[in-house]
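Section 5: illustrative case.
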């Protein structure tokens, strides 16, 4: 990949990282997730509104999963920027072949080519319904 392309993807990654960091920072500041958790654990001593509690817990789990997700994504973006600077960007971590630029355009922090990603997805345990 030539320098111009690398710079282009680097800018893209930097921009994504910045907006993601702002989002996480905002979630931390609001701290709605953590304070809700405290309230919920206090409430669980009383058996007043079991149905309300259940939906409260779902919210918390969703919020925590979301934050975890965002932090994992931030990590990936950081790794990708590192690769732009030190080499290896746009190379599949599994098979070592170049990742298509169309894919990088869509997912600039992609670690695997489409083929390997599909294989990885197939081997993942299916969600229980
Ligand atoms: Zn691959």
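Designed sequence:
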């Amino acid at each position: 990949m030539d320098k111009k392309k690398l710079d282009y993807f680097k800018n893209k990654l930097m921009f994504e990282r910045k907006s993601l960091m702002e989002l996480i920072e905002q979630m931390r500041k609001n701290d709605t997730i953590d304070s809700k958790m405290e309230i919920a654990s206090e409430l669980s001593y009383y058996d007043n509104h079991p149905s309300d509690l259940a939906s409260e817990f779902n919210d918390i789990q969703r919020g925590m999963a979301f934050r975890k997700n965002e932090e994992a994504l931030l990590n990936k973006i950081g790794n990708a920027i590192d690769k732009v600077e030190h080499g290896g960007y746009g190379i599949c971590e599994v098979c070592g072949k170049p990742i298509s630029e169309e894919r990088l355009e869509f997912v600039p922090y992609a670690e695997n080519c489409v083929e390997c990603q599909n294989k990885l997805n197939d081997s993942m345990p299916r969600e229980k319904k």
